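Re-run requested by the PI after the first attempt was lost when the workstation crashed. Everything re-entered from the original request form. Ligand of interest: 2-acetamido-2-deoxy-beta-D-glucopyranose.
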Amino acid sequence: MAMLTIFLLVSKLIFFFSKFAAATDTINQFESLEDNTTLVSNDGTFELGFFIPGSTSPNRYLGIWYKNIPIRTVVWVANRETPIKDNSSKLNITPEGSLVLLNQNKTVIWSANPTTKGVVVVAQLLDSGNLVLRDEKDTNPENYLWQSFDNPTDTFLPGMKLGWDLKKGLNTVLTAWKNWDDPSPGDFTDITLRTNYPEEVMWKGTTKYWRSGPWDGTKFSGNPSVPSNAIVNYTIVSNKDEFYATYSMTDKSIISRIVMNQSLYVRQRLTWNTDSQTWRVSSELPGDLCDHYNTCGAFGICVAGQAPVCKCLDGFKPKSPRNWNQMNWNQGCVHNQTWSCREKNKDGFTKFSNVKAPDTERSWVNASMTLGECRVKCWENCSCMAYANSNIRGEGSGCAIWIGDLLDIRLMPNAGQDLYIRLAVSETAQQSHDQKDNSNKKVVVIASTISSVIAMILIFIFIYWSYRNKNKEIITGIEAKSNESQQEDFELPLFDLVLIAQATDHFSDHKKLGEGGFGPVYKGTLPDGQEVAVKRLSQTSRQGLKEFKNEVMLCAELQHRNLVKVLGCCFQDDEKLLIYEYMSNKSLDVFLFDSSRSKLLDWPKRFCIINGIARGLLYLHQDSRLRIIHRDLKASNVLLDNEMNPKISDFGLARMCGGDQIEGETSRIVGTYGYMAPEYAFDGLFSIKSDVFSFGVLLLEIVSGKKNSRLFYPNDYNNLIGHVSNSYHSFFI
Ligand SMILES: *[C@@H]1O[C@H](CO)[C@@H](O)[C@H](O)[C@H]1NC(C)=O
Ligand SMILES: *[C@@H]1O[C@H](CO)[C@@H](O)[C@H](O)[C@H]1NC(C)=O
Ligand SMILES: *[C@@H]1O[C@H](CO)[C@@H](O)[C@H](O)[C@H]1NC(C)=O
Ligand SMILES: *[C@@H]1O[C@H](CO)[C@@H](O)[C@H](O)[C@H]1NC(C)=O
Ligand SMILES: *[C@@H]1O[C@H](CO)[C@@H](O)[C@H](O)[C@H]1NC(C)=O
Ligand SMILES: *[C@@H]1O[C@H](CO)[C@@H](O)[C@H](O)[C@H]1NC(C)=O
Ligand SMILES: *[C@@H]1O[C@H](CO)[C@@H](O)[C@H](O)[C@H]1NC(C)=O
Ligand SMILES: *[C@@H]1O[C@H](CO)[C@@H](O)[C@H](O)[C@H]1NC(C)=O
């Protein structure tokens, strides 16, 4: 007994002194890590200790961060769900060999309990950022009793294995922090599915958000292989016991990590830039609209860079053509022809090349079947919709079949794999030909929604300037054609003034939706329950009734799904009223410039809105029988219906019907500063080009979420356009 006490005392003393000598990367069973000390890995890269996240949190956590990076970057948190409130807790190793975090009262806050026991257990922080529990004498990684790399939080570091290991019963999951101040698990996760056709899936809560596509023996079906000269050496290990991804940096001096970002719902690779002393985003998943899970619905195929990105697989047609055409794709597609299962010559399979294999949730795999056997297996089962080789290495081997709807297919030019889809026989003959053409087609894949938006901005700037510099041709607001229109008889319903007055509570203030340049707008409810918006034109209008009627008729002819629809009008007792469809989501500015509502506008939605506005504008400028220059395109003139489809309002109508603007085209500038092209604002010259300018400003606002007219960048004393212009020049020069 006395011997033991002396032994303990001596070893404690030895450790006390050795602490100041060198090894501060390790603690043993006789030491504890207190709040005021840290462990530092041997080469000084990582540090383990207590920290307070963010700026407002009162909570303390035990974590690991980069020692030499001035921005505190935590890569692992022990007690992410059980914060510590004071500085009195300690990290210890129990006599049983568990690593425990104890508070003042010796209550366990967090613990790591190895399943196997060591003789003399130590905890060591390795140069990789891995905190390991091991036997003092055994440094073999295979024999670690426990390691933080097996229990990651939100960060995937070089050397870590992300995936599963049946022998160890492990399945590593990355889970984002709830927010900047709170490391507890958020609802954004990344997990490798434990099946014999494994794939990696990111979840937003309980809904799938992104998937890699199944492992096809050489790569993930939806992930092009990583170029060999990359700075990152990415490896997948797949055998019957384990399946995991890992990576290393080919240049060890580059610091890089992969992290789940809850606020943006992206998995980012961030690389430390020593010159700017910041983390730079090297890549992101999902990368584009087609990367988002099931963008195109069942039997749809997503083709990045194409507009619209979704189409039905050959041999399929939209389930709801109406919704599909409005770019509402989630109902997907159905077989174009009825087919009956297994009846002779009624169904067969067509090969689709270069696709990301569909969602494997309802798939079945046998690694030893041939493709021929696979075909038979699928054909025999009437719910089987497709088959493929489960491994494409070499000649291809194995069999995967898909039951039911095929979800989340995308075209992967020069990547992907062959998929055989069940079709009616008459289609299979004709389709195989179509498909051949398709695979030859060079499809430009724009890396991401963001880059396509940036491309649009650049194109817009280019078009605008080349237009402007070429010649200052001026087109008046409405070009002729009105004569022939007069002869035709358009049926625009005339509403009764009494009815409209009742519907709007006699134009009372509480029904007022807003005030446009040409008079107030009211919300009304017709006797049949239909909700409408009523615009009451200025009573000072000097326009005659005949012209007014005529022009309203002209406007009523403008029908496009991205224009607000005119339901009717009313002219009685000096009142001139226009009745429009009512838009439940009000206007774009209501969402765009509101910090909480703007969160509802994700990239795909913003992209759809931009697209819709462009279509509406193109229609006004080119495709309608009249040529309309809007002259006041801005966020508040873009209304949103209940599905957030954009509809341009105040087109032409306002100018034409407002009366007092009709005579002096250049005497009074209509429009809103901030959106007006310089030549219009200063010289009163307007053309479709000035609308394009306004569209560009709107585009920047939609992308940045900032109002052009406000000074948001005090450092360079600029508005949004000026700021973008400066950034553009410093980026390209
Ligand atoms: C905890 O904080 C108190 C007051 O700031 C300080 O006196 C004490 O030394 C700290 N203890 C540790 C372990 O850091
Ligand atoms: C940490 O705090 C403990 C108790 O508060 C104290 O005994 C110890 O000397 C401190 N260590 C350092 C390195 O400040
Ligand atoms: C420790 O116990 C005391 C008395 O039971 C209690 O007041 C205190 O809140 C406890 N501290 C912690 C950190 O749980
Ligand atoms: C990439 O990593 C694997 C193992 O992880 C290794 O075998 C291979 O040599 C590495 N390649 C390069 C170029 O570093
Ligand atoms: C997500 O990324 C943004 C932009 O890079 C950053 O500001 C934010 O702090 C990140 N959020 C988390 C939780 O890491
Ligand atoms: C559907 O089939 C009909 C004839 O059977 C054909 O005319 C049509 O083009 C097909 N539509 C699609 C979208 O494949
Ligand atoms: C897989 O296919 C092989 C060859 O056709 C067959 O012998 C085996 O029984 C199949 N395994 C399963 C689980 O169906
Ligand atoms: C088709 O295959 C699936 C998956 O193997 C199975 O669940 C289903 O029962 C099969 N249906 C028929 C009719 O064989």
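Saved to the shared folder this time. The longest helix spans residues 449-470.
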